[in-house]
Amino acid sequence: MNWLSRRWQAALMLAPALLVYTVYVVYPVGYSIFYSFTDYNGVTEAKYVGTANYRHMADDSLFWSSMRNTMVVLGVAVVLLVPLAFLLAVLLSSRIRGAGVLRALIFAPAIVAPILVGLIWVFILDPHIGLANAFLASLGFTGPEWIGGTSLTPVSVALVYTWQTVGFIMTIFYAGIRMMPRDVLEASQLDGATRWQQLRYVTVPMLQESFAICTVLAITGVFKIFELVYVLTGGGPIHLSEVLVSYMYYVTFQLQNYGYGLALAVVVCVLGAVVSLAYLGFRRRSARA
Amino acid sequence: MTRAQRAHRGPRWSRPAAGLVAVALAATGLAACGSEGGTSGGSKTITLSMQTANVQKSDPATYQIVKAFEKKNPGIKVNLTGQPVDQHEQQMTIAAQSHTLPDVFWVYNSLAQTMAKNGNLLDLTPVLAQNQLKAKFPPSMLAGYRRGALQYGVPYQALVTGLYYNKKILAKYGLALPKTFDDLLQVAKVLHSHGVVTISQGANQSSFSVWAFLTMLDRFGWEQKQAGLLDGSISYDNPDFLRLYEHVAELAKAGAFPENMTTQNYQQAVDAFTGGKAAMLDSGVWAAGAIQASPVGNDVGFWAGPTFADGVGKQELVMNAPSAPLVVSAAVGKNKTKLDAVTKFLQFYYSDAGQQLLVDNAQTPVTTYQPTGPAVQKPVFASVLAALHAPGWTSPSAQPDLVVSAAASTAIYESMYGVMEGVLSPKQALQNVAPTIKPAG
Fold first, then answer.
1. Fewer beta carbons within 10 Å, N or C terminal of chain A?
2. Cβ separation of B114 and A257 shorter than 8 Å?
3. What is the distance between the alpha carbons of residues B61 and B156, in angstroms, rounded to a whole number?
4. Same domain? B44 vs B83
5. What is the domain extent for residue B121?
6. B188 to chain A, closest Cα gap in Å
7. Cβ of residue B267 closer than 8 Å to a chain A Cβ
């Protein structure tokens, strides 16, 4: 047997992946950082403007409303998504009739294009022609402005994001539960642990890594939400329902302000990384304590 | 492994690397050949890129002009492509950076001005000089696409905008076609009391769909103020424009606009009108064909919009200005064969035959050509022509959003929708726009 363990052999085998990574990740990130310090408009020569684009964010009310909306989506999505996905995984890993079909149904939204998800939910959430308010009206209630108003849109986006992603996150938990050694659960059962106690003291602690992965996926997913907002409201009214990525798109491609748009992209990227790392750091400290 | 051994092995693994480089270079070469295009098998090919995904369906006038041109010039093939407007603008921006612009393409004027400034566009003065083509245009149709001595664009189509109205709906509620703003406000109140939308609008991903209101800006003195607005001596936040925005707020308060205006897009607004669910539609001549073909087609007329007792200057204004330009890549000028083909194409586009094809597809000519044929007899298009040629009514030289930067035009659209949606007060709307108005390009 020939072992390809020499350094140059390893380098050669890594080269294609590194090349692709450099071209599609390192270069665009470097490009974005470089142009975020310029007044680039996409066509004419870029002029260095120092940190002007970053300083401009402090005075940009739309940036702050996009930030607030993103944080609302993040809060609602993380609080709802991870526990809900876990509970569904627990439920569907027990012996219930039709669990396979239910798993497929819950996972289905994850394979639907986000644009289509947005279109589906427009017909549900539209305050005037949507099913949600029609249903509420039939019960004698006046429904709120789920989308298109000035306050509830980020919550609605978070709910739609949760609906779209819960199946995928559930699958990770489900795989984790299925891989748990059965003897541990049997031992706890013999010791007289109730179902709840098993869940609280066996299942949850043994799935700590799955919880970490799922939470990071949920966080990074929120910082990538674009299509949902684009389809549900187009960022309106007057950009008050933009999230950071949709606002970045608007600034970059509609206003043709590439310099500022790329500065926003850098901030979104850094923010996503910081929130994820902060969460992982918090988890590590909690685990040690 | 010793240093000497590594040195010995070096050339062996560098061979595959060299091979990879060679393959990459070959691929690049092939790609370069592909993008060069131009002539093949004795025929010439020019590329034309438009702002709609399905040109044949969404822009039949351009499609038919291309087909007629190819028929008349069998040695020239036009490679016609298109994509939705946002993607198109992005792609043209990227193509300008990488010097891979199509030969001829549609682009918003603000981006065209930036490209012209950057030397990406061909000066069309010599093309317009041939066969006295320039003389066919009303001067206002070309003036907006000039940068100093550089004629960087020609009008793609005429921008005739206003309000389509459904005669049947107005008649049903005993209403006459309004003439003044006060009439319109009264109509809105009556229709709202019957649960009918007065003006169908859609802001979702289409905040630009405020054409009738842009003409109203002209009725409050935009054209007289334009130079001052652009040089900063006049603010957009001025008492005249404030009166207009207050009127828009009055319409909103009277329930003139659809409640789902924020979540519906322009196409859905059109569908609401053609489905008989709204009395008026804010749109332009490009929609005439679709409206004619719809169930309400025989009941629709075209109105240039209301006059204002408190407006500024001439009120009898109907927008008939050049829309976005067709421009030509500067690279075309370096290839004589291609330049000849592009020149022939533009000469055909603006010939009487080309303009008649526009008319046949419910577009008004951009030249001085007087249209004929059955198309002008179709009621919807005929009503557009009637509004255009109404005695005493004239056009502003340009639509306000097309003389300012992309940021300013977007701010204007959104300020209007902001007031219609009740999210902005008239004053706030003006204050949002004021800092964005700067000369485009």
1. N
2. no
3. 11
4. yes
5. 39-155+324-349
6. 19
7. no
Please give the pLDDT value at position B439. Answer: 54
Backbone dihedral angles phi then psi of residue A116, each to the nearest 5 degrees? -70, -40
- Single pTM value for the model: 0.80
Sorted by where each begins, the domain ranges of chain A are 32-288
Interface contact B263-A127, CB threshold 8 A: yes
d(CA A258, CA A38): 9
Q: What confidence score (pLDDT) does residue B28 get? A: 35
Q: Which pLDDT tens digit goes with each residue over B266-315?
A: 999 999 999 999 999 999 998 998 899 999 999 999 999 999 999 999 99
Q: What is the tens place of the pLDDT at every residue in A159-200?
A: 999 999 999 999 999 999 999 998 988 899 899 999 899 999
**Domain shared by B56 and B122, yes or no:** yes
Which CATH number fits the domain that encloses residue B309?
3.40.190.10
Q: Compute φ and ψ for B414, nearest 5 degrees.
A: -70, -30
Domain A32-288 in CATH 1.10.3720.10: yes
Across the interface, whether the CB atoms of B407 and A255 are under 8 A apart is answered: yes
Same domain membership, residue B295 and residue B213: yes
Closest of B105, B65, B62 to residue B324, by C-alpha: B105
Distance from CA of A236 to the nearest CA of B (A): 6
The reply to whether B167 and B227 lie within a common domain is yes
Residue of B nearest to A126 (CA): B263
Nearest to A273 by CA among A209, A212, A223, A213: A223
pLDDT in tens, A74-121: 999 889 999 999 999 999 988 788 888 998 999 999 999 988 999 899
The answer as to whether B336 is a domain residue is: yes
